[in-house]
Amino acid sequence: MLKLHHFHGGLRLDGHKAESLQRGLLQATLPERLFLPLRQHIGDHNKPRAAVGDRVLKGQVIASDSALICAAVHAPTSGTIRAIENYPVAHPSGQADTCIVIDVDGEDKAIEPIPPDLENLAPGELIELICGAGIVGLGGAVFPTSPKLSRGKVQGIDTLIINGVECEPYITCDDILMRFNAAEVIRGSGYLQRILAPRTTYIAIEDNKPEAIAAMAKALAEHPLPDTEIIPIPTMYPSGGEKQLVQILTGKEVPHGQLAFDVGLLCQNVGTCAAITRALEKDEPLISRVVTISGDNIAQPGNWETRLGTPISHLVELAGGYRHGTGGHLVMGGSMMGFALSGSAVPIVKASNCIMVMREETIPKSPGYHDECIRCSKCTEVCPAQLLPQQLYWHARAKAYERTREFHLFDCIECGCCSTVCPSRIPLVQYYRAAKSEIRAAQKAQFKSDRARLRFEFREKRLLLKKQQDEERRRLKREALQKKNASPGSEKSMADPVQAALDRVKARKKLAQED
Amino acid sequence: MTNVIVSSPYVVQGSTLKRLMIQVIIALLPGTIAYAWYFGPGVIINICLAVLLALAFEAGILKLRAKPVMPHLADFSAIVAAWLFALCLPMHVPWWLVLVGIGFTMVAGKHLYGGLGFNPFNPAMVGYVVLLISFPREMTTWYLPNSVSGETLSLKEALAYTFGGADIQQWDALSSATPLDQVKTAVAQGITVSEIRLSPVFGEYGGKGWEWIAFWWFIGGLWLLATRTIRWHIPVALLGAVLAMSLLFYLVNPETYTSPLFHLLSGAAVIGAFFIATDPVTAATTDSGRIYYGLLIGCLIYVIRVWGGYPDGLAFAVLLANMCVPLIDYYTQPRVYGEK
User: Quick check: A88 and A75 in contact, CB under 8 A?
Assistant: First the structure.
């Protein structure tokens, strides 16, 4: 049995998971219209690959780009492209982004799948297939999977970690997926093993999910994988964070400024594994995901296998509508790290693991009055990054951004533990987010002004050089002229400059005529 | 429908500022009761007067600063500060002394710096030190515990003392220097510690009465630790430093230097360790920083008691350590995840 380690701090939270686990894995019906943001991943922008009016089939690429950190978007069902324009999307700022809008025709007609000959494919070819399927990390970070695997393969992976921890309150999509589709997850882990050839594989699941652990163990017994172990880990938020999970399983810390694969580790979410299985075995790209609908303002919480692009309002309808009136807050993600959505028109994207539908009373509209920090250090006790949140708050509040960096602001993983336990109820993470974006904006501005300054200096230099060259030329000319004037043949022109000028004009005219 | 964007987390858990302050008040009760038991109702009068004045000052200055009054009054922090301030006073003082002291505590110590959370110095100690320096006679007129004198002032007499109209000379027989003060004066005169200990004001370990009050402060301190209102670093380091310093010199010369137990159980060592030095706003905030902070205060207490100009040194020690807090905090940052 693997010896587990602890990470610093963390919280035991009320999970609110039972509510959405009652009804198993449900299939969401198709809405009338799908809204697919061009970019649903972390990385470069996609370009639309279909035009308004085009008929598209399920599984057809509708947006892609050749950039490295990129993931294509596929049509989740058949239909006609109605528009390509700005719509509200799931983003912390509530901003709109370019979406491809599909009028669903209801036929759900797919392009002909070509299941690949998996037996004879090299790891690189498997990665290419995963890339083609538009797969991203489905734990919430939505980093494109194929570049992560390529880099992991190059660097060499010692331990593959399959993350089924799901530590955040309200979210149960991975739990449900493991209960009902454990085989897909296990087979997906097998493909990852083929690609990465790790020495060991750990499948980590929080011990508050005994059913999922049992289902995964059963699936693993049916499809045995080499050197693979299912590790139940203690329930403690945020054990599902990559850095914390690495620490729990290996006792190692991901060194500052490096990533997990720099120390021979690679983490993949269980949902990603299932998506890989579908892509490789059935040639089915990432067009749907399991979404948890939960919260105290939804009639029937549950988990739905949902096509990407489905508006949240459609899912709310499937879940029996709002429990208390139509109002309330919509949050994407869990109660610790989720963010408020601008409205129910926002579509489900690859990152949408959970939609929390909360009453106004549960989530206050504005932070409002809070007491001041008394430096009690309860935040320090729970901080998994081992920071000093009270000091960060002090400097962030004073806009002393240089200081916040000295206190490692950018090591903050925004897990929310500090805000949760603060006796003064200070929205600490909000201050850190604000400080981070201010610093980033300042860096950008600095970069711009530096570039502008360089350009200006270069221009000044160029103008100076030109001036010097001109002067040099004039000087030479002057000297030549003086020399010429000094020579005897020039006396005539000296004697009669008017005649000389007339001669010159005549000569020019003559030249012009000849031309 | 458009939502207002609020930032996660959307969960709160654990104690509030007000609950923390109430825990401190609960923890102060056993020691306060013991204090009043030995020294009479003057103790309670001082606390009540100080609390009322503190709330009045707090409300007034919040109004002047155009800040919300009720939420701040309801956080109980003014009550805790006033209570601790009152406990530092001699058991019988005129009302205006409390007024001046609380005025400095709340106005200069707290609000001139920006209010709760922004004051670099422990407000109660600021108020106390102002009084100690400005009104040395009133601030050093202490009274005997009933276990020595057999009686204390009645409630009526104590009220008359505090609010004037009484000839305070009539109680001269009951007044006495504190045990720490007596030791200091006697040692300076060349009297040995064992001779001093023969005086009736001394009990088993410390001053008679005082040692038991210290015990009840200790019980309250354990309550604070058990409820995780404070953490162990400051009390342990502070008392450890007092113990280590006093033991060292006691071993060198027990006739000039009193025993470690006497130092721990006399004066403000215990209440200071658990209730005053642990004021989170003005103390160091890192774990190791709190140890340095506690050690510094403990050492300074001993130095001031033995070689300084005052019989006890908690207030000056705390204020001096408060000045070092930014430095301590800066250089005791814990190792961040992923750092070598």
Answer: no
